[in-house]
Amino acid sequence: SRTLRSTCQGYEILHFDAPTGRQAVGDFRDAAWDTWTAPLGFPVMGVYQDGGMTGTDINSVSRAASRGLVATGDDFGLVRLLNYPSVVPDAPAQEQRGAHSSHVECVRFSPDAGGNKWLVSTGGADRGALQWRLVGADD
Hints:
mainly beta; 0% helix; 9 strands; globular
């Protein structure tokens, strides 16, 4: 695909044509995406927890397609693993770890070719970078 998906501070999902950089207009609702790192959209609407969590509390999202998981990093120092797609409001986390002393800036899975066996999280004020190994029934 030649289309990039982005989100803005106004909580809008935006699409751009990669070669030209111009905003793309159309129906991208059923588009298949190679990765999912946007904190907004139907497949990740369940990552926001009830109890006052706002759109700015989730700082980073990463999908592990080969494992059917999505990871989030938030303003509370938590790294969470949820099922993907996560469409149930206030979806329960499969795993939740308070790993960083402040907000989590970014979470990213290793490439699908490697089986998404690793997750890296980076902290904000603590400047920490943590590497997580995912284990499951098939590992």
